[in-house]
Amino acid sequence: MVTLACEGLAVTLGGRIVLDAASAAFAPGGLVGVVGPNGAGKSTLVRALAGLLPVARGRATLDGRDVAAIPRAEMARRIAYLPQGQTLHWPLSVARLVALGRLPHLAPFQRIGAGDAAAIDRAMALTEVTDLRDRVATELSGGERARVLLARALAVEAPVLIVDEPLAALDPGHQLDMMALLRARAGEGALVIAVLHDLGLAARQCDRLLLLHAGRVVADGAPADVLTAERLAAIFGIRAWTGMVEGQPILVPLHRSS
């Protein structure tokens, strides 16, 4: 069983501490949401967990090994990472773009095999972009591009999937589809971590939330225990309505708290 953890993690960017003393452990079987206001350190945390940022103090580990000591090729096979707001510069077809997710499994100059092709097809089917396979990726809408880039991450078929703001540019229907897909991936045994801004979807869809504020982890637990009225007011500066609809927890931001 794959495990990902950080202990006393601190990251400095531009001479400023943007993540400080973060500690958490993650295991497969549930969808973990990382929430917090703008500038809280959410993207910095997940990038550090994926070994993509140098650490000032503490450490991040994958199965007990320091991520900084794990070869990049191995990390690319074990952690699929979808950053936020990617811009496409090369006019690749959708199929070729998604196929880039198989590169960590290929030796230099090795051609894509039948197993790779099957993984690509599965990823495109899951994200409902199969009908876009021959389109030029740079000509897609923002929502289509978001789904194609997720397909590229899914094509890795890594045991860990980290997605940063995967709902940006998606319409409400595709947002629900995206969350269902992430939940299903976790249900299949993957470790799934998602940075989210939509507190309503986070409260309803995630099994666990990690709340960051000013570079620190201030709460970690079940959504109802993390997103309390007091924290919503103190950290997000909002008041919200909370309740149950069709057996699901609902959180609707109403207005700024006084």
Helix content bin: 25-40%
CATH superfamily membership, which one? P-loop containing nucleotide triphosphate hydrolases
CATH fold naming: Rossmann fold
Report the major sheet.
6 strands, mixed
Radius of gyration using CA atoms only:
18 Å
Question: How many angstroms separate the termini?
Answer: 46 Å
CATH architecture term:
3-Layer(aba) Sandwich
- The assigned structural class equals alpha/beta
Task: Describe this structure as you would to a colleague.
With 258 residues, this protein is of the alpha/beta class. The protein has one domain: Rossmann fold. The protein is 32% helix and 30% strand. It has nine helices and twelve strands. It has helices at 42-49, 72-78, 94-99, 114-126, 142-155, 172-187, 199-205, 223-226, 229-236, and strands spanning 4-13, 16-26, 31-35, 57-62, 65-66, 79-82, 160-164, 191-195, 208-213, 216-221, 238-245, 248-256. The chain has a six-stranded mixed beta sheet with strand order 6-7-8-3-9-10, sandwiched between helices. Strands 2-1-4-5 form a four-stranded antiparallel beta sheet, with helices on one face. The radius of gyration is 18 Å and the shape is globular.
